[in-house]
């Protein structure tokens, strides 16, 4: 009897832990979806900005390749191109967040946690059946041999079913506890590595964009201007 109460206490603790985990995972998926939707809004605004830059570049564009306006137009076009490239990386990062976090974590919720819940339903049903069998066996009159034998057989069957259901339920709980660490860490590592890669590439793009901005703000039309432009760059 002591072992039974200890078993039920351990199950209650495990069930509370799983409910807590599920709530945390669902919240993570929710905020990730919000981040992705916000990112889509940022992407749309950035795309509109790039269109505006290209439109401004067309204003300065002339047929004279040596004209300062043409140089401004070229700088604007290059800037728009670099912005477009960075936006591509941002889009990839959003997609990675969706696949690494939303889909992977959602799979953990919908598949692994669901298996535990389904197993719990079976366990609770057979537990109720066992309680009913115990109650019937204890209340049947001992003078009625046939009813006693029938109650005993039912009790034996329910005990066997309870044992199998218990083993399956505990197995599913242990599988989830093992998988949750691996799946969560794998998800984070995958997203982290992708983010590090995107960060390096975006930093490189950022350096190029800064150079294009200097070219845009201080177009070089002569050697003297080039020297003056160089001095200005050092002060930026």
Automatic annotation (TrEMBL):
The highest taxon in the source lineage is Eukaryota
Q: What is this protein called?
A: ACAP
Q: Which InterPro entries match?
A: ACAP1/2/3-like (IPR045258), AH/BAR_dom_sf (IPR027267), BAR_dom (IPR004148)
BAR domain: from which residue to which, for each copy?
7-188
Q: Name one GO molecular function term.
A: metal ion binding
Keyword annotations for this protein, in alphabetical order, are: Coiled coil, Metal-binding, Zinc
Question: Known PANTHER family for this protein?
Answer: BLOWN FUSE, ISOFORM A-RELATED (PTHR23180:SF399), CENTAURIN/ARF (PTHR23180)
GO cellular component terms, alphabetically, are:
cytoplasm
Q: Locate the coiled-coil region(s) and give their ranges.
A: 181-212
């Amino acid at each position: 009897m002591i072992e039974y109460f200890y078993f039920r206490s351990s199950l209650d603790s495990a069930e509370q832990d799983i409910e807590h985990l599920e709530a945390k995972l669902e919240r993570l998926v929710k905020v990730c979806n919000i981040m992705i939707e916000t990112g889509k809004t940022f992407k749309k605004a950035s795309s509109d900005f790039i269109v505006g830059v290209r439109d401004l570049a067309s204003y300065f564009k002339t047929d004279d390749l040596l004209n300062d306006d043409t140089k401004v137009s070229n700088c604007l076009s290059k800037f728009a191109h670099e912005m477009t490239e960075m936006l591509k990386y941002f889009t990839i990062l959003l997609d990675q967040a969706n696949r690494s976090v939303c889909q992977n974590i959602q799979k953990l919720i919908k598949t692994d946690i669901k298996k535990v819940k389904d197993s719990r339903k079976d366990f609770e049903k057979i537990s109720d059946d066992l309680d009913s069998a115990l109650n019937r066996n204890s209340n049947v009159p001992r003078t009625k041999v046939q009813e006693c034998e029938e109650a005993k057989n039912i009790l034996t069957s329910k005990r066997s079913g309870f044992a199998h259901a218990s083993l399956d339920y505990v197995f599913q709980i242990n599988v989830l506890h093992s998988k949750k660490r691996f799946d969560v860490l794998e998800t984070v590592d995958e997203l982290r590595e992708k983010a590090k890669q995107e960060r390096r590439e975006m930093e490189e793009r950022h350096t190029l964009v800064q150079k294009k901005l200097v070219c845009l703000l201080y177009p070089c039309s002569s050697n003297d201007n080039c020297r003056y432009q160089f001095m200005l760059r050092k002060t930026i």
